[in-house]
Amino acid sequence: MKTKPLTKTAVRVYEAVRAFIADTGRSPTYEEIYEGSGVDPNTVTSALSQLEKRGKIVRPVKGLIAIPGQPIPNPPIRVKLGYQRRTEKRKRECLTCGGDFDSEWNGNRVCKPCKTSSTWVSSQSNDYSTPGLRSA
Ligand SMILES: [Zn+2]
């Protein structure tokens, strides 16, 4: 079976991923691959599946990209934040509506009704950092 060479885009994505992991020790997010490679986010997705099919990268866990033969990198910051949540359940003031609600953890600052509103979801899609946890 003859294999086609990788597309230039896939090579760029691969180089960006490899450089990112070497530099930070963690797996990049799509956003970071985009920043590192200049390849637009939609193309990043197809480039990654191409690379995965060729065995250039592996994805042992959803959202985690690793280079075969190299140590498994740390998860991307966005994924990692989920694990760093401190379970400090208490009443907190919602940042959106200002009402008190039962907050699950210290970074949980928007009440459930606000969270499910479309405004919050759309503004959140561009927010890859959680204030206060960024410097971790
Ligand atoms: Zn609210």
Taken in chain order, the helices and strands follow as: HHHHEEHH
CATH class category name of the largest domain: Mainly Alpha
Bound ions, cofactors and other small molecules, one mention each:
zinc ion
Based on the structure, what is the oligomeric state of the protein chains? single chain
Assess the beta-strand content as a share of residues.
Answer: 5-15%
Largest sheet: 2 strands, antiparallel
| Range of helix content | 40-55%
Residue ranges: pLDDT <50 for 5 or more in a row?
79-85, 132-136
Using only C-alpha atoms, the radius of gyration works out to 18 Å
- How many separate domains? 2
How many separate helices?
A: 6
Q: Can you count the beta strands?
A: 2
Describe the structure in your own words.
This protein has 136 residues and is mainly alpha-helical. It is 43% helix and 6% strand. The protein has 6 helices and 2 strands, in the order H-H-H-H-E-E-H-H. A hairpin with a 6-residue loop joins strand 1 and strand 2. The longest helix has 17 residues, at 8-24. The termini are far apart. It binds zinc ion. Zinc ion (ZN) binds next to helix 5.
How would you describe this structure in keywords?
single chain; 136 residues; mainly alpha; Arc Repressor Mutant, subunit A; 2 strands; 43% helix; 6% strand; disordered C terminus; binds zinc ion
Question: Briefly, what is this?
Answer:
By secondary structure, the chain is mainly alpha-helical. Helices cover 43% and strands 6% of the residues. Zinc ion is lined by residues 94, 96-97, 99, 110-111, 113-114.
